[in-house]
Amino acid sequence: MNARYVKICGLQTPETVTATVEAGADAVGFVFAPGSPRSISAEIAATLTALVPSGIETVGVFRNQPIDEVIAIATAAAVSTVQLHGDESLADMQRLKDAGFQTLRAFSINAYAALNVQDRQKWDEERLLLDAVEPGAGVTFDASTLTGGWPRGFWLLAGGLNPDNVAKLITELAPSGVDVSSGVESSRGVKDISLIQAFIHAARG
Q1: CATH number for the domain running over 5-204
Q2: Dist CA 106 CA 29 (whole Å)
């Protein structure tokens, strides 16, 4: 893994996947959550994951979908990692691990801030992602709302990141890495290769 882990999410085309890999990302993400403008089928995702060399994570993103369905889609798509972005439990995470997947658990900043100390400790062993209140909307969250500290283990910062602000936010918040989707788009759901390259360069700079 590079010094600063970078994940580019919501990819839909061979061109953007290849460009993301060549720019040095640690992970590429594919959305399977219903209703998202970035959502793709497992069949399309399988053609895209085939372009990704070993050593780079391929992440399937799901939101409040039945775990059996998640496992079936993630298996068909041939992703290495499943990211759950809803109200899923630790038991759901364990089921995914038992099925052979790496995992990420996303929380909105409000949901994570609302956890008490004991509940946060239960998630300490998981890889986490902290996002804005409305994922994919391109809005940063207010870090001052998080009392009690950041996650103790590996965690990704997401929500409103773009090539212009990512370096500053990394310096201020010191996450393990960053995750971007709308911040590297020319229009909603449409990735821009030059923005992807600029984002990765800024995050590593």
Answers
A1: 3.20.20.70
A2: 13
Separation between Cα atoms, residue 181 and residue 158, nearest integer Å: 9
Q: How confident is the model at residue 1 (pLDDT cuts 50, 70, 90)?
A: very low
Exactly one of 131, 142, 179, 192 is catalytic; name it.
131
Verify whether residue 119 is a known catalytic residue: no
Task: Confirm whether 131 is a catalytic residue.
Answer: yes
For the chain, give every domain's residue range.
5-204
- Model-level pTM? 0.92
- Written as one string, the DSSP assignment of 126-194 is S-EEEE-SSTTS-----GGG--S-S-SS-EEE-SS--TTTHHHHHHHH--SEEEESGGGEEETTEE-HH
Q: What does the pLDDT look like over 157-187, one tens digit per residue?
A: 998 899 999 999 999 888 999 999 999 999 9
The pLDDT tens digits for 49-92 are 999 999 999 999 999 999 999 999 999 999 999 999 989 999 99
Q: From residue 166, give the alpha-carbon distance in Å to each of 133, 171, 174, 198.
A: 18, 9, 11, 10
